[in-house]
Specification:
Shape: extended
Radius of gyration: 39 Å
Structural class: alpha+beta
Number of strands: 15
Distance between the termini: 26 Å
Largest sheet: 5 strands, antiparallel
Length: 649
């Protein structure tokens, strides 16, 4: 339950062994390769037998692996659109050895290619379908004209297809055209709300007068080049092509539906590409010489003996060192926790990992987080649902680390919720008393054990208890800060900060109990003495007022913030009881169960998220600010990183 100690590793090995060593390191998953220092002086001890010329490996394999992954993901997306349901939420990921995962590379690529080719064929058919519909729409206005669309103009006659505005009657336009010249004729093919589609036949000698008239009516020539025959003939041809296109599209979709059986090989291809990407990204951070390669990175101290025994099989040299204080910000952080505190990693990672030289907050936070969540939710029914969901998912689905931590934390909080529900007598609110009254209105049912307190009747006691728990957590945070400062030699800082206020709090308690006021007076003197002894000049005066204001308002605000424990407990209990009461009004058991089920489902969903958010706030703002140093960089070793399969040894 601590931050794992890291060792800086510099490794020199033969280029001929590079692939084998990278596979070894990836299989062990305990080395994070970082960008190396390219200064030859850093590698002076290891480069004595080489030419010292450093260069990065070729990145072509990395680009290819990324392309393979993108292609596999596109293929899976295509199959999903055409019927592949994937795996169920509770279906565990299949297990493969590394050798099995890397097998069938050719078959995997063929499967990806087959799916993508079928999808491209379908896309081409759909594009053609759209094009045919567009062509048919363009022909629709001219279907009534029994004249080929490719009828050309001659030296004596002008033939044009075009449009005029629909805002003027056709007869008026025709009269003016014929008035301009008896050698011109305007024939309407069709009309819509905006324009009239017309055919103009005009003698060359009359074109200027006729076009002058038509311009006043918005004449716009239509370009129908590329068509042959009449509009109706072309429409019939396109209709036939559309029918053929629809048949081919149906066949292509049916073919893609049959290709869903390739989903598993494609998932394996995607995982294979992910593994290759992870390894090639590590290789891209190496440095090559003519015959050797150089690796720089970090390895957990606890994993080094096993790694060292594996490296001895290769002709290589290495240098292991402890990180310096200047390197702490870039040293990766790995947390080592047990079954109880490991689920809290999702909370820590959501906030920020601790600094390498800081403290692992998980064991310090776990009891408070789990207890506070149970206090806010406080219902046996909800706790039971949380525990069942946790057990079912963890046992059946075997989720990965992130989801595993989530459901493990859900189960732990469910236990706390169930216990607090037993203490307060809540089971989906007052579900049991209400349903018993439907059968026997005279019933005065009480729990088999008397609740220690109830949210509606003991609200003030719960509020005081919540703030008392908050005060305890704040005192624990101060104690952690005190120990940390003493270990770092900051004894006086601990005296004027944590110890001073411990004395003040103890003095307040003793004064309230009427024991003595001496301790409180000593605490007050220490509050005044701190700024006087540590500040200079006018800062002594401002320091006194600043210390008093910041600490008094800070501690008061922090403690008051824990009243949310009472508020959420009360809100959840009241909402559940309101829905149960509404369901009981009709006096029908079925209606009661339906309304209660809907209401409690909504209440459970809201509280599930709300309690987590408020619990997280209490830990991150009121607790962590007493001792927590964040900013840690997560440990990301080169490993067998997969999405669809579990790689086992």
């Amino acid at each position: 339950m601590a931050i794992v100690k890291m060792k800086g590793l510099r490794l020199l090995a033969m280029r001929s062994d590079r692939e084998a060593l990278l596979e070894l390191l990836q299989g062990m998953g305990c080395v994070e390769i970082e960008e190396p220092n390219e200064d030859p002086k850093v590698w002076q001890g290891l480069l004595s037998q080489t030419d010292g010329v450093l260069s990065h490996p070729d990145g072509e394999a990395l680009s290819q692996a990324r392309e393979d992954l993108q292609a596999a993901q596109r293929a899976l997306a295509v199959l999903k659109r055409h019927g592949d349901k994937g795996r169920g939420f509770l279906t565990p990921r299949p297990q493969l050895t590394c050798a099995q995962l890397m097998e069938g590379e050719k078959q995997g690529r063929q499967a990806v290619h087959q799916v993508l080719e079928a999808d491209r064929h379908l896309a081409a058919l759909e594009a053609q379908h759209g094009k045919l519909l567009t062509q048919r729409a363009a022909l629709a206005p001219w279907l009534e004209l029994n004249i080929p669309l490719d009828t050309p103009s001659t030296q004596e006659m002008i033939v044009q297809f075009g449009t005029v505005t629909a805002g003027v009657a056709l007869e008026q336009v025709q009269r003016e055209v014929e008035g301009a010249s008896e050698l011109a004729q305007l024939t309407q093919a069709s009309a819509d709300r905006d324009v009239r589609y017309c055919l103009l036949v005009c003698h060359v000698s009359a074109q200027e007068e006729v076009f002058q008239v038509l311009r006043d009516y918005g004449w716009s020539r239509m370009n129908l080049s590329g068509w042959t025959g009449t509009a109706k003939e072309n429409d019939q041809r396109i209709a036939k092509e559309l029918e053929e296109n629809e048949q081919q599209t149906a066949q292509a979709e049916a073919q893609l539906g049959q290709l869903t059986e390739l989903a598993e090989p494609i998932r394996q291809a995607a995982d294979r590409a992910s593994v290759n990407i992870n390894r090639e990204e590590g290789r891209s951070r190496l440095l090559d010489t003519e015959q050797t390669f150089l690796l720089e990175g970090w390895v957990p101290e606890e994993n080094w003996p096993q790694l060292e025994s594996q490296l001895k099989a290769y002709p290589c040299a290495w240098e292991l060192r402890d990180p310096t204080e200047e390197e702490y910000p870039k040293v990766p952080v790995k947390l080592k926790n047990n079954w109880l505190t490991r689920p809290l990693s999702m909370v820590t990672e959501m906030y920020s990992l601790p600094a390498y030289n800081g403290l692992d907050p998980n064991p310090l936070m776990a009891p408070f987080f789990i207890l506070f969540y149970g206090i806010m939710m406080a219902d046996m029914g909800y706790g039971l649902l949380m525990m069942i969901a946790s057990v079912v998912v963890l046992k059946k689905a075997r989720p990965r680390a992130g989801m595993h931590n989530f459901f493990a934390l859900l189960g732990l909080c469910g236990v706390s919720t169930f216990i607090m529900g037993a203490v307060t007598g809540g089971f989906f609110g007052d579900f049991i008393p209400q349903i018993i009254k439907l059968f026997n209105p005279e019933s005065t049912f009480v729990w088999f054990w008397p609740p220690l307190f109830t949210p509606l009747e003991d609200t003030m006691m719960i509020l005081v208890g919540a703030m008392a728990l908050g005060f305890v957590q704040i005192l624990v945070g101060m104690a952690i800060s005190l120990v940390k400062k003493v270990r770092r030699g900051q004894v006086m800082d601990a005296v004027w900060e944590e110890i001073t206020w411990y004395v003040v709090f103890a003095g307040l308690g003793l004064a309230i109990l009427g024991v003595t006021k001496v301790v409180l007076i000593v605490g007050g003197i220490m509050v005044l003495a701190g700024p006087i002894l540590t500040e200079k000049g006018f800062g002594k005066i401002t320091g006194i007022f600043g210390s008093l204001y910041n600490h008094v308002t800070g501690y008061f605000g922090d403690i008051l913030s824990y009243s949310r424990l009472m508020a959420l407990m009360l809100a959840g209990s009241v909402i559940a009881q309101v829905f149960n009461t509404l369901g009981a009004i009709p006096g029908n058991v079925v209606i009661f169960i339906i309304i209660s089920l809907l209401g409690n489902t909504l209440n459970f969903a809201l509280n599930l998220l709300g309690c987590y958010v408020h619990d997280l706030r209490l830990q991150c703002l009121e607790y962590f600010n007493k001792f927590y140093e964040d900013g840690g960089k997560p440990f990301r070793p080169m490993k067998l990183d997969t999405n669809y399969y579990d790689v086992v040894k």
